[in-house]
Amino acid sequence: MSKVSTGSAVLRRAVARNGRRLWTGTALAGVYQLCAALVPILVGVIVDRAVATGAVTALLAWTAALALVYLVLVVTYRFGARNLQRAIAEEGHQLRVELAAKILHPRVLRTGRHTGDLLAVTTTDAEYTSYLLDHIPRVTSALVAVTVSAVALLLISTPLGLTVLIAIPVVLAVLTLTAPLIARRVKEQQDQAGRASALATDLVTGLRPLRGIGAQDAGTGRYRRVSRHSLAATLRASRTQNAYLGASTMLSSLLAGGIALMAGWFALTGRITVGQFITVIGSAQFLVEPFGVLAVVPGWTAAARAAADRVAAVLRADVVLPPGTAVPDGCELRLTDVTYGPLAGLHLHVHAGEFVGVVAPRSADAEALARLLAVPDGHTGDVLLGGERLETVDRDRARHLLHSEPHRTDLFTGTLATNVTLHDDDGGRLDEALRAAAADEVAHLHPAGLRMPVTERGANLSGGQRQRVALARALLAGPPLLVLHDPTTAVDAVTEQAVADGIRSLRHGSDGGYGTVVITSSPTLLAATDRVVFVADGVVAAEGTHAELVADDDSYRRAVLR
């Protein structure tokens, strides 16, 4: 994937990689406008050379020529539009795929943008950027039309032709002065829309907790304020663009009208023939559209450039983790004197195949540990996997060996089965993972079973059901070392016991070999572990089995037996 640094580079690359279809379509669009510009010219010729003289043969010949021009016009429009629409669609697709790949980079994208804003860049901005491939042929064909008409007007009357050739550059130069303002307004509009989308995503995701604490009104008020900012930015951009469009349309119409008035005066004074007058009037009417296209070019370019700048900002963003090359020797996990966020000199050792519980009464400690094992960046001390620093391990290899499942997991639109497995060859392992996570009960509650529909983010499932489905997905992946952060906070006590037994049986049964770290304060899960590490104030305060710590450590007992 090539790296682009600016919006201009994104636009140049779009042109380069769609060159064949773009320039073929542009050439056909130019021929189309050439034929369209010839229509009023041929009509004038027919009037002067056939109608005025009464020559039937000339009338038939020039009418046939006009019919041929119309035939070429239709064919070039059809095939030109086909090439250009294909180029626009493919560029939009390529940009969306490239942006998605960048956002989902295994070494983790370093960006301050929220999810909703990234979504806006991947959809709206990618689409606006691809529209450049529509602007180029429109501008080119408009120039062809204006040139042909101007030459025809010069041949008919030098003043008429000079009026066109001089007035158009002047009008375009005046309108181009507004391009930077339009670009700023469009960029501001997209930025504010991204913020509103990001907040909406967060609020919809956390709707149940908001309702639980009665904070939905506060969330609604916050979104209303952000949405108003987005609306204001949209209105400012729309006012600027509409004012620009109005000015360009007015100037184009005035120019075309001025040409028609000059032609009328020249016809009345005998300086041009009736056929030439018809040609001038037809050309003036025809020129309104290409004039309008050329007049809005700066606005189009500004909008495409603003969108391309946002696309480039994501594509050029760095990744968090370095390219890893180390190959771990096994899956033993060792944290030595690690400082990261609230963690202050943490020591943790997990042997291969061991089932370890981690209790952290301070939730920030638990979140920091889970996040560090998922993205080992910004810490001091050593985080070793199989004797190698975790951040230096190849990311594909690291993710295969170690998976850190966050407390807040996401489900996707599809079915229960597609949310648990990405492959069709899991066989009995799928059933085992579902049973171990007690997610088989979720399937049994619906007539469709594993084909039960799952809506966006699993909104049609309860919190406990979502946790069990996500846990089944993690268990089915079967990493040699699995880190679980509070996997059972939303399930009842009976289900929690079934999950604890299921994890123990599936990952630490007769086959053995798997390592599991569960960060939790659940006594049911902790009782199933081989060993528990008690973390207080960012450091290890005690270690032992769950039963030993309950009996001997008051702080631990208060943390887990609440």
TrEMBL record:
The chain crosses the membrane at residues 21-47, 59-79, 139-156, 162-183, 243-268. It holds the Pfam family ABC_membrane. Keywords: ATP-binding, Membrane, Nucleotide-binding, Transmembrane, Transmembrane helix. It is a multi-pass membrane protein. One of its GO terms (molecular function) is ATP binding. Residues 23-295 form the ABC transmembrane type-1 domain. It is found in: Cell membrane. Residues 333-562 form the ABC transporter domain. This is ABC transporter ATP-binding protein. It comes from Micromonospora humida. The lineage of its organism: Bacteria, Bacillati, Actinomycetota, Actinomycetes, Micromonosporales.
